[in-house]
Design goal:
heterodimer; A: mainly beta; five-stranded antiparallel beta sheet; globular; B: mainly beta; four-stranded antiparallel beta sheet; about 50% strand
Chain lengths: ~110, ~110
């Protein structure tokens, strides 16, 4: 059975800290791994990773994929209160439609 | 503005009643999706549609039904056969082809069945 496991489930940090969120997967027919940020209602897209070892960056956020060990990490440096959200990891099947989501990591950044 | 709308935001129903959740998009996307989110769990795929008049079951389709008569619309009916219908429901859409990875989500509908 396909599964995506995220850790930790929740995390509390102080502003300015650096955090690393983990995502491991066991999915047949892997195409890509995606990260989303869910603040209140609708998840918003952060990154798509398809190849191993290539870091994607957007401001203070970065992510990398290891297809041999079947995991990805999402790093957030110099955290701000606005980073408080649930971060979702998802794996997209080949064919491009079926997506398996992890349970998410709930991050809370204290001022 | 382009986007996805879901209505209503909150919905209350009595057990045994069918209820239909609306999802409309004006992004000109071919593919649309319905997910269910429960506390402490990730999004679980209910149904998806790659094109008008076609849809496929996801992982938890039992007790749900959909239709895709128009490109813009993908309504979800939660039937009385769904054992635990209380949940947060998210609709999404995406392009197809090489750029089909990014799904755009609507604001969701929180359904409570008592």
């Amino acid at each position: 059975e396909d599964k995506v496991v995220q850790s930790p489930l929740s995390l509390v940090v102080h502003e300015g800290d650096t955090v690393t969120l983990n995502c491991s997967y066991e999915v047949t027919n892997f195409r890509s791994l995606l990260w989303y940020k869910q603040e209140k209602k609708a998840p918003t897209f952060l990154f798509m990773l398809t190849s191993s070892g290539i870091e994607k960056k957007s401001g203070r956020l970065s992510s990398i994929l290891d297809k041999k060990e079947l995991f990805s990490i999402l790093n957030i440096t110099a955290t701000q209160t606005g980073d408080s959200a649930v971060y979702l990891c998802a794996v997209l099947h080949t064919g491009g439609f079926k997506t398996i989501f992890g349970a998410g990591t709930r991050l809370f950044v204290k001022a | 503005d382009g986007g996805i709308t879901q209505s209503p935001k909150y919905l209350f129903r009595k057990e045994g009643q069918n209820v239909t959740l609306s999802c409309e998009q004006n992004l000109n996307h071919d593919a649309m999706y319905w997910y269910r989110q429960d506390p402490g769990q990730g999004l679980r795929l209910i149904y998806y549609s790659q094109i008008v008049n076609d849809f496929q079951k996801g992982d938890i389709a039992e007790g749900y039904s959909v239709s895709r008569e128009k490109k813009e619309s993908f309504p979800l009916t939660v039937t009385s056969a769904q054992k635990n219908p209380t949940a947060f429901y998210l609709c999404a859409s995406s392009n197809t082809g090489p750029s089909s990875y990014e799904q755009y989500f609507g604001p969701g509908t929180r359904l409570t069945v008592t």
